[in-house]
C-alpha cells in the first residue's frame, strides 16, 4: 500500500519548514536548493503523473512560493521570525493541497475547483503583497535585480493561474498580462511612495487585471463585475497618489 497523497503533502511541507528554517537562521542551505526539493516533493505528492504542459502551473507555483520566503521572513527577528517560519510551512501545505485539488480537476469535474481557484487567487495577493512590502522596505525598488525577479515571479504566477483556468486562451492573455504587469511595476518605480502604499497599489492592480482576465476566460465578465474591479482600482490609485 502506497503513501496517501495528503501524507506526501505533509512530508513535503515539513521538509520545507526544516530547510527554510536552516536557511533563514544559519544560511547554510541555498534557497534554490530548497526550491528544487519542494518541486520534487510536489511531483512526488502528485504521483509523478503530471503531463509536460502541467509542469508550469503545478511545479513552478510551489517554487515561486519557496523562493519568495527568504525575502519575506529573512528580515524578521526573534519570536516573530519563528512564528513566520511555522506559518510559511503550514501555508505551503495548504498551497499544495489547493494545487492538488486543481490537478485532480484537470482529469474530472469536481465541485471544489472553484473554491480552489479562489484560494489560489487569494494566496497570490497575500504572497506578493508581503514579498513586495519586504522588498521595498529593505532593498528599495531601485534594485534592478530584485525588481526583475519580482516581476518574473508575478508573471509566472499569472501565467500558471491563467493556464489552470483555460489553456485555450493562455498565449494571448499571458502576453497581455506580461505587458500590463511590467507597466505597473515600472510605474511604481518611477513614482515611489511609502512601502505599504507601493505594495497595495502594485499588487492590487496586478490582481485586478488577473481577475478580469479570469472572468473573461470563463465567459462571466459582466458590466457589474467590470465596474467592481475598476472601482477597486480607482480607490487604490487615489490612495496611492494622494496619501
UniProtKB/TrEMBL annotation:
Where exactly are the transmembrane stretches of this chain?
Answer: 7-25, 31-48, 55-76, 82-105, 117-136, 148-165, 172-190, 196-213
Q: Which UniProt keywords apply?
A: Membrane, Transmembrane, Transmembrane helix
In the record, which residues are listed under signal peptide? Answer: none
Q: Which domain of life is it from?
A: Bacteria
This chain belongs to which protein, by name? Uncharacterized protein
Q: Which organism is it from?
A: candidate division WWE3 bacterium CG22_combo_CG10-13_8_21_14_all_39_12
